[in-house]
Amino acid sequence: MSYRSPRHFHPAQARAARIQAHKQQLAMRLVGALVGLTLLTGGLLVALQAHAADSTVAQPATSASTAKLGTVQSVQAVEVKGKGSGVGVVAGAVVGGLLGNQVGRGTGNALATVGGAAAGGYAGNEVEKHVKRHTLFKTSVKLDDGSVHTYTVGQQYAVGARVKVSGKKLSPAP
Question: N or C: which end of the chain has fewer CB within 10 A?
């Protein structure tokens, strides 16, 4: 058995090696494009959410005559999933793409990379929403005029507590 240096490949082996190198290069370009697109999308989502938070329309002050008084009848805690900001998607897609890139060769590698990025992005978004979850309170209030209304608020009131209702907001009665 004779030793052949890597420079002396059979022409078919050399062609196969070039094709394999080209496929790997395309896969890496695809991963780079996906990561870049994911980062761009996440950045745009964060920017849009920040802009939406800054550009809220000021509501006119509620006059004392429209505020109503009532008594809390019941309170039920409701767990609400948080909102994803895009950070979880980006982080998950990058990690998933990197992990997927470790699997297979050629076309299988490219598919694993894309699949890993997609699955990682989804998982990252779900993890972010889970971390940002919070509790709201579904509160039934019987107003002094006899009508009963339900409000979903961030503060828990005791049953029997007197509250002031202004629009969709509750506050302790004076």
Answer: N
Can you give the three-state secondary structure of the chain, one letter per residue? CCCCCHHHCCHHHHHHHHHHHHHHHHHHHHHHHHHHHHHHHHHHHHHHHHHHHHCCCCCCCCCCCCCEEEEEEEEEEEEECCCCCCHHHHHHHHHHHHHHCCCCCHHHHHHHHHHHHHHHHHHHHHHHHHHCCEEEEEEEEEECCCCEEEEEECCCCCCCCEEEEECCEEEECC
Least confident segment among 8-22, 38-52, 68-82: 38-52
| 35 in Cβ contact with 117 (< 8 Å) | yes
Is-contact 88 45, C-beta < 8 A?
A: no
**CB of 141 closer than 8 Å to CB of 68:** no
CATH of domain 63-81+133-174: 2.40.50
Q: Quick check: 80 and 135 in contact, CB under 8 A?
A: yes
**Confidence class of residue 50 from pLDDT cuts 50, 70 and 90?**
low
Is the confidence at residue 143, as pLDDT, over 70? yes
Q: Tell me what the mean pLDDT of segment 87-112 comes to.
A: 82
Rounded Cα–Cα distance for residues 157 and 153 (Å): 9
